[in-house]
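Standup notes
- DV: blocked on the single-chain target, sequence here:
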Amino acid sequence: MLKKTSIILSLILIIAFLIPISSLSATTDKDTISSLLRDTAGTEGAGYYDGTHATSLSIIIADVIKLALSLLGVVFIVLMIYGGYTWMTAAGNDEQIAKAKKTMTAAVVGMTIVLLSYAITVFVTRYLTASVTESGSGANTGTIR
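- DV (later): unblocked, structure below
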């Protein structure tokens, strides 16, 4: 009975944290954000897409990679919560504690890989963008700004 109560309480807490997040994303005005981006970017484009301007392939690929890495960050948090919950409910059971430690260790290693991937992606994207905008042909002719 106690385990069932703790599971229900955990689900209520998770839902309580997810409702404000979903309501924030639902209340954002797409037109307002697009106009702010247009004001900031000016006529250069700077990677926004409002249905009338096409973006470059490198910007689309970078956005997809950033989205995938963001989703992996959410997976990390879920795994850490699961590992912590398993550890807390182990009640001294060494097998469950070992399973929780293994889950949390794997989550930390995975998050480290994700962060390194993100750093490499940002570096390469900035390098390629600076290289292309500097020379216009894609050849690197100077330093990165």
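- Follow-up: The CA atoms of residues 20 and 140 lie 46 Å apart.
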